[in-house]
Amino acid sequence: MIPQLDIIIVNWNAGDYLHDCIRSMKIALSNSFEMKNIVIVDNASTDNSLADVEDIDLPVKIIRNKTNVGFGKACNTGVWSCNSEYLLILNPDTRLFSNSIDPVIQFMQRKENEEIGMVGVQIIDEDGNISRNCARFPTPLVIIYRAFGLDRLFPKIFLTHFMTEWDHKSSRVVDQIMGSFIVLRRDLFEKLKGYDDDFFVYYEDLDLAYRGLKLGYKNYYLAEAQVYHKGGGTSDNVKATRLFYNLHSKLIYSKKHFSKIAYAVVSFSVLFFEPIVRVIHALLRGSFESVAETLSGYKMLYMAFFFKANQ
Q1: For 107-134, b where at least 16 C-beta lie within 10 A, e where not — what string?
Q2: Which SS3 state, helix, strand or coil, does residue 95 take?
Q3: How confident is residue 232, by pLDDT bands cut at 50, 70 and 90?
Q4: How confident is residue 308, by pLDDT bands cut at 50, 70 and 90?
Q5: pLDDT digits (tens, 9 = 90+) for 269-299
Q6: 297 in Cβ contact with 244 (< 8 Å)
Q7: Residue 232 class from Cβ within 10 Å (0-12 exposed, 13-18 middle, 19+ buried)?
Q8: Which CATH number fits domain 4-133+168-234: 3.30.565.10, 3.40.50.720, 3.90.550.10, 3.60.150.10?
Q9: Which residues neighbour 110 within 8 Å (Cβ) at sequence distance 6 or greater?
């Protein structure tokens, strides 16, 4: 019996990207696995992204949320609605190739790879280049020196979050794979009880990978498989909001996985030093728009952080 795969896509105003993504799945079909379900969980989109999607000749089903519940919670809803042994968590601004899925399933089916819980693939950008997007698990020290911008000033001394020093042309075990395309075992997802709903968006895939590692599973980057990913995607037009959620999720992750003292130092750095560094950097680039976006994003962060702290 061939393995079955469910594809989960969380959609929020993805427009034509979603249609292009679904249509590209036909080229990724293979006799080595069954694409059982393509579940689109829509977070109350207001555009036309869902129009005619169900007419595509693929096993598509749509779950419509009345409000935007965030990525992790929506993704959990999609996963719990189906039961295949493999899951593909996929962004709507991706497009699959003929080698996007088949090499991954075959890799995970091998007995010697049973300890591999999640697999990511080579991400190709709009210019045909390989994106260097695998990342390291952050430590308190890393988050602090990044808040001061030291990784930008002295990249050879202070390593960045992403493994940019590695060309991503070879396969290897990594800490975190790109969240736009993750194939994982359903039994691992169930053991982890899915994504942590506390993360509205960002860091939820990092948290999932770290919790999987603590259970003894490894995360693997498979260079033999590829997928196109636009990047930025549906959040390009809400950059201040994107900054807020990124920073907010960073603090949630730190509180969850670091000691109380480390969390306190990280919070102080992110809340009070990082905005100054971001504004100075934007001014040096002459981008007053980025200054406004930074101030707006931090205003939302302060309101969320201090309001919750006072509850």
Answers
A1: bbeeeeeeebbbbbbbbbeeeeeebbbb
A2: strand
A3: low
A4: low
A5: 999 999 999 999 999 999 999 999 999 999 9
A6: yes
A7: exposed
A8: 3.90.550.10
A9: none
